Amino acid sequence: MPETIRAGQVDALDDFGSRYDPVPVEQKWYKFWEDKGFFTANSDSDKPKYSIVIPPPNVTGSLHMGHALDNGLPDVLIRRKKMQGYETLWLPGTDHAGIGTQVKVERMLAEEGLTRFDLGREKFLERVWEWKEKYGNRIVEQLRRLGCCLDWTRLRFTMDPMLARAVREAFVRYYEKGLIYRGVYIVNWCPRCGTAVSDLEVKYVEQDSSLWYIKYPLAVGGGHVVVATTRPETMLGDTGVAVNPGDERYRDIVGKMLRLPLTEREIPVVADQAVEMEFGTGAVKVTPAHDPADFEIGERHGLARIKVIGEDAKMTDDAPRQYRGMTREECRDQLVKDLGQAGLLARTEPYRHSVGTCDRCGDTIEPLASEQWFVKMKPLAGPAIEAVEGGRVKFHPERWNKVYLSWMRSIRDWCISRQLWWGHRIPVWYCPCGEIIVSREDPAGCPECGSEDISQDEDVLDTWFSSALWPFSTMGWPEDTPDLAKFYPTDFLTTDPDIIFRWEARMIFSALEFTGRVPFDDVYIHSTILAKGGERMSRSKGIGEDPLEMIDRYGTDAVRFVIYYLESQSQSYQLWAERFELGRNLCNKIWNACRLVAPSVREYSPTGTERTTPIDDWIMERFNAVLAKVDEGLDRYAFSVAAAALYDYFWHDLCDWYLEFAKQRMKDRDPAARATLRRVFRRTLQLLHPFMPFITEELWHRLGLGAGSILESDWPGRFETDVSRTARVESVRELIVAVRNIRSEMRVPAGKHVDCVVKTSDAGLVGFLEANVELVKTGAKVRELHFADERPAGSSIAVIPDAEVYVPLEGVVDIEREIERIRKEIDNVRSVVLSIDRKFSNPDFETRARPEVVESERKRRGEFAERLARLEHQLQSL
């Protein structure tokens, strides 16, 4: 049985302030939900399950707008499913964030004048764990502020013992199956972070540079080959020049030797299909140790790998003596000067191109040939492709299916080793006898020779290796746990478009490999939030809004609602502080509406014998309509559709219309009105709850709508109504709107009442309007309502279903003066429309003007054309 809320937990009705204050409400109710265990899942439950795992935020992080989306959207779904009778699990956790965390701690050490090498690995890791315990749970508390109903009893961390065991198990299984190998390959090396990073952790930035054309003299005889490059410093590591075998220009020199400029070495000319004849001169330098494409060419032609740039981004001892120890940039500048002096620089051209940078620190990535651990991807990619093609995993919006499949079909082997200390250390040990030991447990010695002199691999695994196991490792895999049996696979995942390949793809192939099942059914790729100026939000650059500041200013429910209201499955949208006013205004509207109806609702228990009016049936039918839109919207993850429908229903149907219609009946304490208000507000708050949990919980108790939490109540169903009775109410509403529009268009003074004449052959409508004449008088400031077959002289006209509506204006406005004013305005508006049309009649306008200017003028033309049509209608009416 639901537990009754303690006395004093909800403020007395006489303390029902006129403005909603979210602070005390949010502090009170989150603690209540958590203390009562409403978020805790039961793996022994017989209920159908609905489960989600959180995209684990980095322990280095604090809440940003991306997190607000990642966690706000699932919270709507979890709360709704819980109210629909599902056993729900929303599993929380954080990621150890290998590079990010290590960099933070190293910076902290630098302030003490220390490096990690001064401490040694063990002491350094102790400092990292201390930092994690002190700062790592900050985002956990911030997720509570967002109202997320996460099961905190199952809080996970990617380096917890349970997850560490899963990581070892996965590595060993891959290795035993021949899917993990150690090899030399070109990796993306970040000199500042001091580690290899994956392709997905490289951010490409457009930069202005140069294209240098260098002469490579033939070793025998005269002549030379001109090669174009954007990185002349890597020339010192060239071991070949490649041309396309179909390029007639170079047919006679394939197989000949060239002298490498500024060195004593000779290098061959090779023919390879990978060379694009259109780039530069059609002859390309081959540097197998410093370019992935050159590495492949080198492998095909047996070219040596000479590493002239080291991990510190300085020239190595394999470079000519005069360049050793220089940075990449210093070497480039000196080399270009030396080539010019030697007469080997043919020409230089400005060139703009994409340069790979580290997604973590922004340093320029250096492609280096390095010995690393890799996962073979082709055997894993196949099943992961089939899972999406077969619909077992569905991306929303659907366009992301193609993006995922395109990447998976061209996937390269995954470099999983990182030259860091913080992370899951690679479970590989080496013995001097040459034996390599891969083990689930730390070995005591070498199984081949018995030596105890074994050493573990110094590297750690890519952070994404452990993240790829997240949906099932968090539930206890590789053990057969109750959680795994009940809640896996999960039902839903939402995430940023930037990590489809880093995370979703890796979770899919990992889950299929280790569990035989997909990790989730649906993946929702949310929009990218931009700042007001259109830039991508960035906390480090100070661009955009801080969700915690917005919560402090507007309240959690206001922030949440606006996020849902704007999340329309678009690529991106702009967000700034003032947009949250819509959410705050809605909170105040809900609060004041409940404050208005509280005396009618709180102490009333419907008997079932109340005789409802057509107007009562109308609002219940409007509720049915919004319930259908919310259900349909959430079922297909159209969050904005659901939120917009709720907003329009509450603000307009419920408040603007029904409460206005019901005011007198509330004063008269009419039983049918009170019963309708109680039923409608109860279901409306239930419908709003997943979107705005705090205010709805507070009002649920203030209105006395249930003994326990609103979260324990059932998801609302449809009202049984007589739809035939509601059509008349729509006629009343449309009549009021028609008279209001005439008053506005004809500039009837606000305090002046008008007469209204209705022409209709529908006797039922006449009777209904006569019975509800006070609603028309109050709603449209009508003095008297009449029925006639002829249009009164000097009246304005509007048409509604089954009737014409006339508002006589003689004596109300100066008709002749109004006609003259409208004609002048028509002339002015028509001249604007013609001016815009002249712009578009010029063929150069749309081709030369900026696209945003063309679109603005097109929109402006539509607005003025609509205004012109309204004015002409007004003139005709007069």
Query: Could you name the ranges where pLDDT drops below 50 across 5 or more consecutive residues?
Result: 1-13
Distance between the first and last residues' Cα: 66 Å
Structural class, judged by helices and strands? alpha/beta
Shape: globular
Percent strand equals 15-25%
Number of strands: 29
**Assembly type of the shown chains?**
single chain
Total number of helical segments? 28
Cα radius of gyration in angstroms: 36 Å
Mean pLDDT value: 90
Question: Which percent bin holds the helix content?
Answer: 40-55%
Main sheet makeup: 4 strands, antiparallel
> What spatial order of strands do you see in the largest sheet?
6-5-14-16
List the helices and strands and how they pair.
Blueprint: H1 22-35, E1 49-53, H2 65-83, E2 87-91, E3 93-94, H3 98-111, H4 116-119, H5 121-135, H6 138-145, E4 156-157, H7 161-176, E5 180-190, E6 195-197, E7 202-217, E8 224-229, E9 240-243, E10 257-259, E11 266-271, E12 283-286, H8 292-301, H9 328-341, E13 345-358, E14 366-375, H10 378-389, E15 394-396, H11 399-409, E16 414-415, E17 417-418, E18 428-430, E19 436-438, E20 455-456, E21 460-461, H12 463-467, H13 470-473, H14 482-487, E22 490-495, H15 500-514, E23 520-525, E24 528-530, H16 547-554, H17 556-566, E25 572-574, H18 581-601, H19 614-635, H20 639-667, H21 671-688, H22 693-702, H23 723-745, E26 754-759, H24 763-771, H25 773-780, E27 782-787, E28 795-800, E29 803-808, H26 815-841, H27 843-848, H28 851-877
Parallel strand pairs: 1-2, 3-4, 9-11, 15-23, 22-23, 24-25, 26-27
Antiparallel strand pairs: 5-6, 5-14, 7-8, 7-13, 9-12, 10-11, 14-16, 17-21, 18-19, 18-20, 26-29, 28-29
Helix pairs in contact: 1-22, 10-11, 10-15, 16-17, 17-18, 17-20, 18-20, 18-21, 19-20, 19-21, 19-23, 20-21, 21-22, 23-24, 23-25, 26-28
